[in-house]
Every structure is written in structure tokens, then in C-alpha cells.
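Final report, closing paragraph on structural work. Over the funding period we assembled a curated collection of sequence-structure pairs, and we close with a single example.
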Amino acid sequence: ALASGVLDGRTSGDWKLRDEDLQALFAPLPAAPKKTRK
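Its predicted structure, as stored:
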């Protein structure tokens, strides 16, 4: 899971995004509040 998050974060240019991205993907919530998840 971490590897996938790191790759996603690197692509987005934000390492923090990896965590929020994973949370949004795993969580049933939309990808909009994922930014406020942190």
C-alpha cells in the first residue's frame, strides 16, 4: 500500500497526497474531501 501511495504522491508532486489518495480510494467518501482528510 505504501509503495502505491508513494508512486501516486510522486506523480502528483505531493508526498502527503499519497496518504490522502489512499484514504480516498479505500474510503467510500468522494475524492474532494480527501484534501481535508489530513
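Residues 2-37 form one domain. The radius of gyration is 9 Å. We thank the funder for supporting this effort.
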